[in-house]
Amino acid sequence: MNCKQVNSLLHEYLDGDLTGVKLHQLSHHLNTCSNCKENLTQLEKTEALTRSLPKSPVPDDLTDKIMDVIPMKRETRWMRWAKQYPALAAAAVFVIIMMGSLFAMNEPESNLIVSGSGMEYVVIKDNQVIVPEGQTVNGDLVVENGEIIVEGTVNGKVTLIDSEINLLASAEKVAGGVTHIDQTLDWIWYKISGFFDFFKSE
User: Fold this and answer.
1) Which residues pair with 130 in a beta bridge?
2) CA 133 – CA 123 distance, rounded (Å)
3) Is the pTM of this model over 0.90?
4) Which of 125, 148, 157, 164 is the most exposed place for a label (fewest CB within 10 A)?
5) What is the rounded CA–CA span in Å between residue 126 and residue 159?
6) Contact 13, 30 (CB under 8 A)
7) Which residues of 50-81 are buried (b: 16+ CB within 10 A; e: fewer)?
8) Can you tell me the distance from the alpha carbon of 66 to that of 117, in angstroms, rounded to the nearest whole number?
9) CA distance 188 to 180
10) CA 10, 12, 16 angle in degrees (round to 5)?
11) Using CA atoms, how far apart are residues 172 and 152, in angstroms rounded to an integer?
């Protein structure tokens, strides 16, 4: 145990909270280090001086005064409205998310987005998502703005949003089928379905 460690434990030592190996190591260090022993002596004197000071009486209303000056958390008008009309609030949030997604979808440059289960079995390279030969993805895959090449097997459905699929052998490699979403209305319907599926799964 070094001096820094000993100094960090001196208060615990004085309070009698130190036990076991730490107490033994600290005692050994104090017997061999004059600087740390001097620090301990100073702390003991300070504590003794503090204890000798007269105690001031605490006013009975101190707690109330402290609580009065702490600012209370205030509800905003939006929070009150959301509590009163939770269904409308959820619908409003959904519309905001949809509008944001719609604006993002219409941006001229879009990056590849891949989601779903079994991501550890796919290879993503440039704008291609590859299910390698011999690999099996157990679940659904969603690919946006890219191409998926299925050499292995997908035991779920593949949803393509502004994307293409390349099945190297046969369509039977995608057990759940392939859904293409290239139109804005299809995309909105897909997002609405996903929104309600999310609440079903909760």
Assistant:
1) 123, 149
2) 11
3) no
4) 125
5) 19
6) no
7) eeeeeeeeeeeeeeeeeeeeeeeeeeeeeeee
8) 53
9) 13
10) 115
11) 10
Q: Does the pLDDT value for residue 148 go beyond 60?
A: yes
- Which tokens is 110 given? 């879009």
Query: DSSP string spanning 57-71?
Result: PPPTTHHHHHHHHSP
How many angstroms separate the CA atoms of 181 and 200, rounded? 23
Partnered with residue 111 across adjacent β-strands are none
Alpha-carbon distance of 24 to 28, in angstroms, equals: 6
| Partner residues linked to 129 by β-bridges | 124, 148
Q: Token pair of 86, please? A: 């939770």
Cα four-point dihedral sign 50, 53, 54, 58: negative
137 in Cβ contact with 131 (< 8 Å): yes
**pLDDT tens column, 81-125:** 888 888 888 888 888 887 777 666 655 556 888 888 888 888 998
CB burial readout 145-159, b (16+ within 10 A) else e: bbbbbbbbbbebbbb
151 vs 129: CA distance, rounded Å: 11
CA 50 to chain centre: 45
Taking the C-alpha atoms of residue 71 and residue 174, their distance in angstroms, rounded to an integer, is 59
